Amino acid sequence: MGLPATSRLARLLIRGGLFFLGWLTVTAAPAAPIMDFVPPAAGSYKLERIQAATEGAVIDAKGKRRRLSEFTQGQVTLLAFMYSSCADPNGCPYALTVMHLVKDQLEKLPETRGRVRFVSLSFDPVRDTPRVLALYGGDHSGARQHLAWDFLTTRSRRELLPILHGFGQDVGVDIDKATGKPVGTYSHVLKVFLIDRQRMVREIYTTDYLLPAMVLNDIKTLLMEEGVRLR
Amino acid sequence: MKNTMHVKNPARKIALTIAVSATLAATPAFADETSCSPYTPLIKGQEDLVYVWTLGVKGVGDGSDKLVTVDVNPKSKTYGKIIHKLSLGGRGEVHHVGLSDDRRYLWGGALDSNKIYVFDIGTNPAKPKLTKTITDFVQKTGFVGPHSFIAMPGRMMITPLSNNKDHGGETGVVVYNNKGDYVAHHAMPKDGGGDGYGYDAAINPAKNVFLTSSFTGWNNYMMDLGKMVKDGEAMKRFGNTSVMWDMKTMKPLKVFQTPGAPLEVRWSWKAGDNWAVTTTALTSKIWVYKQDAKGEWQVKDVATIGDPAKIPLPVDISITADGRGMWINTFMDGTTRYWDMSDPMKPKETFTKQIGSQVNMVSQSFDGKRVYFTTSLLGNWDKKGKDDEQFLKMYNWDGKDLKLAFEIDFYKEKLGRAHHMKFQARDLSTLKPLDMASNLPALLAQKQ
Question: Terminus of chain A with fewer CB atoms < 10 Å: N or C?
Fold first, then answer.
């Protein structure tokens, strides 16, 4: 991560799309955990096989019904649960920031091309329609991309909930005390899942553990485990 | 476990979780529980409930171990009262509990049966429900006596006390995922000065370190205390070391000599602090771990607690959220002691109060204004006869004195021995992260 902070921040904002820019201008900047250590070198440690990645029915940004496993096997996958209207600086916006930072670094490594994928899967099937997610995430998928980044949603809560359950992702609907009606936000612990080519979850990150340098090294570690030679 | 294996329809279960969350009030707050994992969201306000992990006693009530839920919100009509009891239907020397990474589950261990119980405390925090009992701990690890439960994202780190080869003190660190499935285990180091013993653990995410302490094996912790102290050989079999691990790789970085059974370990969460603390039960010392100018971890004996010749037996500790103070309980004299930790290398005892004939665990709220005490150390180590008081007491602390707010006699209530406590909120949407955060520029500048 050698670029000056200002230029990288500008690039991050552009790539994050209009929604992210809007968020950043009206709320506090994401709060980043302190990292007062040099992360262990990629490949110098083992990532445990924590649990199997969950299967489920999803909808891609073009509105096509897909199986989640299409996005969580064959490549090293970084999967985050999010919703587009999340304004908690310790939540979805922070994950988005970290994913952009890691993506920047991976794009500097030609050996990682086509071997790593990002997935953002929405908590909010009602408001996060494919069209909204396309606007939110931009077009990062497709063979021309160094790293495909798919923004997915589900047809209903009924289809979403088993996926959340399988991954162990909590969520609660926030309610207005006065009216008793949902306010449109969700309480959840930010979780990002690193999944290997065989659909095993190899690392799980929450806010204080989601450090871009560590995530990058974990991705490299899984690639090296597969025999990919990295610079 | 999480969202659980015993629910036939997981979608329905999560829908219930959402429904429960949706029906509860949302109130922002301020508080802390400094013994929690840094990955567990915290109650930064008035805690609503206290769970007390309680050892069953033959002839007392149903004689079984229990999870007891106490209402501790002063605005509640049932303030200071037991509102729920969950009997486990047997005795297994239950000891400590730990919260999951989302605070929706509570894991509790039993030192003799080696069972681990997982309770759903998210769907209805006032009525915990047992969702899974893990019974493969010894089979999977070779270790005995699951003690501390420290949440990592998506999994639980467990520190056992013993092993199934000789029931001595050599042990390790175990990882289960949140579903309750075994993931990995790591042996405590026996090289570099290590004795292989284990007890408690605490994480410092900013430093990527995992600090463990040491106690004694099944042969000792299940022995009658009076008999053990007269057994010279048994008294030699206590841990004298603590270990700093690389948290990411789970490789030991350094073994420290901290003689006399270093028990609970706590990090100061004050921004910029880089020290942790423990106390040694048998030598009655306070030890501080701190990085030196070269970044190497060092440990120093910084103070003496009471009169070591009388073996006051320092047991649980509770550090304030700002790292400026610490409660230390000494079991034998039933006394709690407040230490000023403003200069952790030169702490000073500033207040003492006898809580009962014996006292073990201490837990304080984030603002430090409420301090909770319980009594049981181990089933065979608690005092006998009239000195075997078993209670939960809550005091208000104004910085000068502890004033009793309520107490519950666990024998009168036919419950048993009151041991470890954890707080819970009725509305989980009020939970807040530990927040050791810096800011975006700091994130962008993170080292590679």
Answer: C
Q: CA nearest A100: which of A30, A188, A48? A: A30
Q: Do A208 and B38 touch (CB under 8 A)?
A: yes
Helix (H, G, I), strand (E, B) or coil at A18: helix
The residue written with tokens 């199997």 in the block is: A52
Which has the closest alpha carbon to B388: B262, B225, B228? Answer: B225
Distance CA A101, CA A212 (A): 7
State pLDDT tens for residues A11-49: 443 344 434 433 343 344 556 778 889 999 999 999 999
Across the interface, whether the CB atoms of B429 and A191 are under 8 A apart is answered: no
In chain B, residues with a C-beta closer than 8 Å to the C-beta of A36 are: 206-207, 274
In B, which residues are within 8 Å of A49 by CB distance? 183
Other Cβ atoms closer than 10 A to B168: 18
Provide the pLDDT for residue A17: 41
State the pairing for strand pair B172-177/B155-163: antiparallel
CB contact under 8 A, B154 and A173: no
Q: How far apart are CA B15 and CA B427, in angstroms?
A: 16
> What gap in Å lies between CA A177 and CA B365, rounded to an integer?
25
Which H or E element spans position A16? helix A5-26
In 3D space, the residue among B179, B234, B120, B251 whose CA is nearest the CA of residue A54 turns out to be B179
Judged by CB atoms closer than 8 Å, whether chains meet at B183 and A164 is answered as no
Question: Which of B265, B275, B336, B261 lies closest to B305, judged by CA?
Answer: B336
Chain-centroid distance of CA A222 in Å reads 17
Taking the model in full, what pTM does it have? 0.90
What tens digit of pLDDT does each residue of B111-154 get?
999 999 999 999 999 999 999 999 999 999 999 999 999 999 99
* Measured distance between the N- and C-terminal CA atoms of chain A, rounded to whole angstroms: 15
A83 by Cβ neighbours in 10 Å (0-12 / 13-18 / 19+) ranks as buried
Predicted complex ipTM:
0.88
CA atoms within 13 A on the CB side of A223: 25
Q: What is the DSSP string of B113-126?
A: T--EEEEE-SS-TT
pLDDT given at position B338: 98
**Contact between B26 and B427 (Cβ < 8 Å):** yes
What local confidence, expressed as pLDDT, does residue A172 receive?
85
Tell me how many degrees the CA angle B399-B400-B404 measures, rounded to the nearest 5.
90
